[in-house]
């Protein structure tokens, strides 16, 4: 449930939307609308994603600034004049739950791709710096791969700590 905004212009816009189905209705300082009156793009996606991933948040749905309710029941339907006052959620279908899970997995996969492309950009920048003689002395061939690596700058063991892998080269 979302309280009517304190901003006068935005509150009037909300009231105008409600009055499309309730002609003489006027909001009070306690008036609220449920999430069903807003389109999906009216909500902050990051809060929704955190909630779907199981990260604790105060609220699952957070309206974006300036969001205006645009979803209202059509005149002539049984829902007109019966705005929901219930706080219980309707039962979720298995399909809807699977679809949400698929979207979360897709967003996570995109996030991993973005972070790995960021890492490879950083590595490219380091290699370019090294090519100009300001780094560890590694040079780069035309293929983009290092021509020469000094013994302390390269580790084949990704899952082990550098110092434990190269104990004999570490001087202490």
Automatic annotation (TrEMBL):
Keywords: DNA-binding, Metal-binding, Zinc, Zinc-finger. SMART domains: DM3 (SM00692), THAP (SM00980). Residues 79-90 have a biased composition (Polar residues). InterPro entries: THAP_domain_protein, THAP_Znf. One of its GO terms (molecular function) is DNA binding. Residues 1-72 form the THAP-type domain. Residues 158-172 have a biased composition (Basic and acidic residues). Residues 73-97, 115-172 are annotated as: Disordered. It comes from the Eukaryota. Coiled coil: none annotated. This is THAP-type domain-containing protein.
């Amino acid at each position: 449930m979302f309280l009517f905004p304190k901003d006068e212009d935005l509150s009037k816009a909300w009231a105008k939307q409600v009055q499309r189905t309730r002609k003489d209705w006027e909001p009070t300082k306690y008036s609220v609308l449920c999430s069903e009156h807003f389109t999906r793009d009216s909500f902050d996606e990051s809060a929704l994603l955190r909630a779907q991933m199981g990260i604790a948040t105060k609220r699952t749905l957070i309206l974006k600034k300036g969001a205006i309710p645009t979803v209202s029941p059509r005149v002539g339907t049984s829902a007109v004049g019966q705005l929901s006052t219930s706080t219980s959620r309707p039962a979720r279908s298995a399909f809807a739950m699977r679809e949400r899970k698929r979207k979360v997995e897709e967003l996570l996969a995109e996030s991993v791709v973005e972070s790995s492309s960021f890492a490879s950009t950083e590595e490219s920048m380091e290699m370019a710096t090294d090519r100009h003689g300001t780094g560890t002395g590694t040079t780069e061939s035309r293929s983009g791969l290092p021509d020469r690596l000094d013994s302390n700058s390269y580790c084949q063991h990704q899952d082990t700590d550098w110092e434990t892998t190269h104990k004999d080269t570490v001087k202490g």
